Amino acid sequence: MSGIQPTVAGEGLPPDTIWDENLSWFDALPRAVSMFGLLVVFLGLWQLVTGLGLVSPIILPSPWRTAQDLVFVGQSLLSGNYMLAAFWITAQEVIFGFVLAVGIGVALGILVGETTFGERAVMPYIVAIDTMPKLAFAPLFVAWMGFGIASKVALAAFISIFPVVVGTAAGLHAADPNARMLFKSIGASRWQTLIKLKIPTGLPQFFTGVKIASISVVAGAIAGEFLGGGRGFGELIRVAASQLDTPRVFSLIIYLSLLGLMTFGTVVWIQKRFVFWHRDSNLQDSHK
Amino acid sequence: MSVVSNLKAPAGHVARPVFQLRGVSKSFARRNVQALDKVDLTLEQGQFASVIGASGCGKSTLLKIMAGLTPPSSGSVMLSGKPVLGPRRDIGMMFQQATLFPWRTTLENIVLPIEIQDGKKAALAVHDRAHALLDLVGLRGFDKVYPSELSGGMAQRAAMCRMLIAEPDVLLLDEPFSALDEISRDFMNMELQRICLERNATAFLVTHSIPEAVILSDVVYVMSPRPGRFVEAVQIDLPRPRTLDMLSDPLFGRYTKQIRGRLDKGAFI
Ligand SMILES: Nc1ncnc2c1ncn2[C@@H]1O[C@H](COP(=O)(O)OP(=O)(O)OP(=O)(O)O)[C@@H](O)[C@H]1O
Ligand SMILES: [Mg+2]
To answer: What range(s) does the ABC transmembrane type-1 domain occupy (chain A) (predicted)?
Structure first.
């Protein structure tokens, strides 16, 4: 045993063997730099295409023209004129539609995920309706609920409810057999198993469904306005497009995407507080 | 300790039967599998018994029936004189996976059985006991840590605390340490023995490891597959408390050889 000697550094050994991992230069760029660079390239190409007159400005306005309109729309929104009113209408449609989709979606998801009846009898209908072209229901909603905000809320909720149902039901099934057996062995009731095992286990799946819903709900509201004559941002887009005011269409769409980002961001924020134990790869922390 | 080992002397004492299984059979109609065939088993107070057998021979099924997690197809299961008709709180269970819940701290995981059975207040009241158990398994200071920060062995030790929190008289263990490395496994086995001796608890262990079965048990049941039945009960007459040194005892070697021979025969019928 005494023959074993600890290795001593310095005698006959080369110095620290530090070596570089070969990362190509554009992989090594900081995130902000690479994102900004990509934006510059994109705007440059856009400017090139429009500046050389390759396409008519009615089809694609120059970036500069679009930026000007972006500022104009931003100022109108801040000044609180009709644009803000329209934005507020669409925001209401999105928020109510989203709340409705989550509320009803969770109830249906629990019915499907927790009861055999729901799984056998309800789920097939949900799948069948999900495969239908849901936008085709828009005229029906207008006929039932009129041209006001209600029909848009209904369509937005209708379009975004399915990922919530599926996410909730899948989440309730996610608890593994060992965990179920453990709960059974300590005498947990069905209700306790649902509250203390299945729901916490299923939260990540549930939030995945809700995140998808939070994006598609905006599309639903706008489609509702296109098809059912609303007074929100969708209507402004429709009018701008009919007047061939393409820069306006672009800037309205960009402000609209802020709405989607807001709902999505809210969901991510809530998820981080409630599902602190689950590392999720969403946009925020994927490259940190 | 010596008092305990005297109590558990193999010959000439009348021990109270805790578990009594008579003619327990189980068949799974769906797959036409006869998992268990007329198993008889008596466990006495303070006894440590193991069952060893090929994969799929019905060990886990037997354990689930004893725990009241699944009913037998025929036969009777009595625990402390009462038939087992569902999960019982005088039974503690441990499985191959620790199955700690990531949204609960280690302490909250450990008091979960109390919280389920008696509510949040009662769970709060056993925090002291939970801390004592954490000390016992060498996890002092890890009470507020979430399971993702525990190693596999630490998680399994926390699972052991959870099993013990309701102070069960009977421990049913389904390969509890088989996912651990050999060093932690030996350590955990000795801990398990110490806990059982201290509380005079009755234990029934499912394992794939012959040395583990021999070092821990008063009796090792060898099980044969399809249909699952006991083909031999090997009494282990090594003194208590057992130590890891006994692994090199010639008597120990003879027991393992006997069981291995029995397994080889049984597995290929
Ligand atoms: N729920 C079930 N439905 C149908 N068959 C089952 C079910 N559970 C177990 N079996 C069958 O019963 C037999 C015994 O299974 P069991 O899990 O008890 O084996 P085991 O001895 O614990 O095996 P292992 O050592 O691999 O854990 C196997 O053939 C298995 O396929
Ligand atoms: Mg098993």
So the answer is: 87-271
